[in-house]
What does this fold into?
Amino acid sequence: MIRFSEEQAMLLDTAREFCQKQSPIAEVRRVIEAGQPLDATLWQTMVDLGWLGVTIPEAFGGLGLDLADTVPIFEAMGSQLLATPLLATTLAAQVLITNGSEAQKNQWLPKIAAGQIATIALTEANGSWETDQITTHLTQAGSGEMTLTGSKTFVLDAGVADVILVSALRDGALCWCLIDASEIPEGAIQREVVIDETRRSYSLTLSDVPIRADQILPGTAFQKIELAAMLLITAEMSGGLEGVLAVIVGYLNTRKQFDKLIGSYQAMKHPTVDILMGAEMTRSYLYHAATVWRDETDEAVIEAAVRMAKCCASEHFSEAGDRGIQFHGGFGFTYECDAQLFLRRALWSQYQFGDDRHQRQKLGALLF
Amino acid sequence: MNENEINEFRSDVRAWLNENKPATPSFLLPETFMEVGTDQQFEFLRRWQQTVYEAGYLGMSWPEAYGGGGQPQVMQDIVNQEMAAQRVPFVPNTIGLNWAGPLILDMGSEADKQRYVKNILSAEDIWCQGFSEPDHGSDLGNAQVRAVKDGDEYVINGSKIWTSLGSYAKYMILIARTSNEGPNKYAGLSFFLAPMTAPGIEPTPIKKLTGEFGFCQTYFTDARIPADCMLGNEGEGWSVAMKTLMYERGAVGGQAGGLSMMDLNINDIIELARRATRNGQPAIDDPLTRDELVKLVLEAKGNALMGSRARVPALGGTYPTAVAMSGKLRSSELKRKMTRFAVSLQGANGARYISDDALDGGKWQRSYLNSFSGTIGGGTTQIQKNILGERVLGLPKS
It folds into this structure.
């Protein structure tokens, strides 16, 4: 069952129009070249559109909609390879909404709705997708005082974040720690190189950083946050699939070899149809997962729907990117060819929050 | 019908099916009307159709005057659902019930309706289809079987292929070329309700890759059929043939109902994976097998969700016709993959074939070989991909 409201349809139209205008492919390349941690003007425009507040409860200055309602925005951003701190900030807001105390929500959610940037720090150097492998930890240091030690990686937009939510062990159990950017020691945040050049990814190295009790979130939900990340990244991937398919079809309809348009060769045409089918299936899984996210209460049902969507998207988007390179021939081997932008995006997305093989492992346990 | 009447009817149907569902025979039944290979199979299935019809559960929404039930379509839908749920055998007169019958009710004369419709429902008259030809597999418009008018008859020459139930059929819906003139290849085609009993019509059974018989090549040698068995006018055969594809299940005055094939769904494969063993363990416990099974589940569920999304116009995307136009491609390929996988679940016994020693009598091996009828018949997977590439993605013609 897939349900899609008129409001969501309107948001989808608005988001597509916005992203097409803001992020043509030349602009994507300019942003990569410039290497700036943030396009402040673009960010302000998105804040003005209200996108930061979509999922934030009305009491804290947002629209109070469901996370699933942001799926059309991320899908539209994905199709234009538009990377902004919206992903990190939306996920960090979810951490606060799901796990935060009233005081923590009061302090941060209105600021986020108004455009302050937030991010989450989950993954560590071993590259595990399992939260039981987290080693970052809190240590009791005297009466009531604690310190936080550990290293995080793949922390999106940490360089411009006003607040970071860090996962850590406290007496052997996982919790979330909220750290104001001003409390992070100099040099703790370092830009790191990732395959998708549109992403601003950072490492975060913390050594005996003091943590007060009021910085620890009372809630300890982790899976819901991971699933939220999978849902939004799947939305981006669904858009990305549409984008790379357009690049491929465009080339197949203009490039000639042996006096014929290459799209007339079945060796190109048939795998391109396979990509189309993968894109259509991914989009169906995406909006199914969004429907289930909004309407279902059974956690296992939500988990299965989201993992299936992430699995389908990971497999098909990276395959489409891979074929996209091949179909461009010699041009495909150059930096100039846009297919590489999509392949790199596909790889980044595939390996964040579980690739297709990982998802199938999880699904095996959920389904059988 | 109100809610109560519907529920009551449904439980009546359920009870009747419980009571009258035929016991599993000692021989392996075919899974679709295209696979009926022996007299034993045919008689079993024909008897089942007669039983269903006599109970009033077939053609329920067709007019009473011609042997139908004159009831609301919803009742037939309920019967179909219950039949699928209880896994009863299919009713074999598929071409009659789903194509010829609706066509005759739609555009046949009063005499045609009186003559043909009731016997389609009762399986008294079996129907077959003469569309494909040996040299024009997927290119129906290029049909070359000739029909030449001679007095009040047409003289037919040529041959048709893939005539399912050809040996048992009394009538054929036939496309033949009455002219080579006209603006295009379609213009010279005409449509006939041809009697298979006419001298000069010889259905010759073809042995399939399964080793069974299931359809025929039908040869026409100066076969004379009455001119009044033409449906529509001369030269209108193409549009009549296209009409047959529009009588969808569930539409009023559409298909007569009943099952036309044994449905295979992914849950059957999951169930088999629990039951079949590889190296002494249930196949589902083997991690590599499990991974393959999850892939198949994802494809099956993804296919279903594509249909679900296609019903939301706002999510049509860049290629809104992609889902509808790829249905046959996706479902036939999925069935091929599922049955192929089913064989792989059986360890060394995957190498068995139809026999008592094989798991489920060798049904899965046979199903896999038969699955190619879906990926080849009605336009091969490769032709489907050409069509999708050209008509949906707008790529140049091959």
Notes: Residues 173 and 356 of chain B are 38 Å apart (CA to CA). The longest strand of chain B covers residues 213-226. Chain B touches chain A at residues 270, 273, 284, 290-291, 293-295, 297-298, 301-303, 305-306, 308-309, 311-312, 314-315, 317-319, 322-323, 326, 329-330, 382, 385-386, 388-390, 392-398 (CB under 8 Å). Chain B has a mean pLDDT of 93.
